[in-house]
Specification:
Rossmann fold; 4 helices; 105 residues; two-stranded parallel sheet; alpha+beta
């Protein structure tokens, strides 16, 4: 739970590379990338954005991740060796979220 009382949902792909590719293709065919992003609406809908990217991601180009980070004014963490973050351990995630968590409850 956030200090603001909002619940955080963290999404992360822990499935196989094939599943990630399939989901990416579905997003493309569903029109996910076919219209302009509404940056102001996205920013207005959240109290913070924490984003992770890796320059060796086989599905999302690093330039796209950097553009999204810039447009969302996110707290952006870039790695060189994480691929599509399909590992079961990701300690940096908790550390990045810790300042936003309400630990008094």
């Amino acid at each position: 739970m956030l200090a603001s009382g909002r619940v955080v949902r963290v999404t992360h792909s822990l499935d196989s590379a094939q599943l990630a590719h399939t989901l990416t293709q579905r997003c493309i065919h569903a029109g996910y990338y076919s219209r302009p992003w509404e940056w102001e609406r996205i920013r207005a809908n959240v109290s913070f954005v924490v984003q992770f990217g890796s320059d060796d991601d086989p599905f999302i180009p690093i330039a796209e991740m950097r553009e999204v980070a810039q447009q969302l004014q996110s707290t952006y963490h870039e790695f060189t060796d994480r691929g599509h973050f399909q590992r079961s351990k990701f300690p940096e995630l908790l550390e990045a979220l810790r300042p936003h968590l309400n630990t008094s409850k």
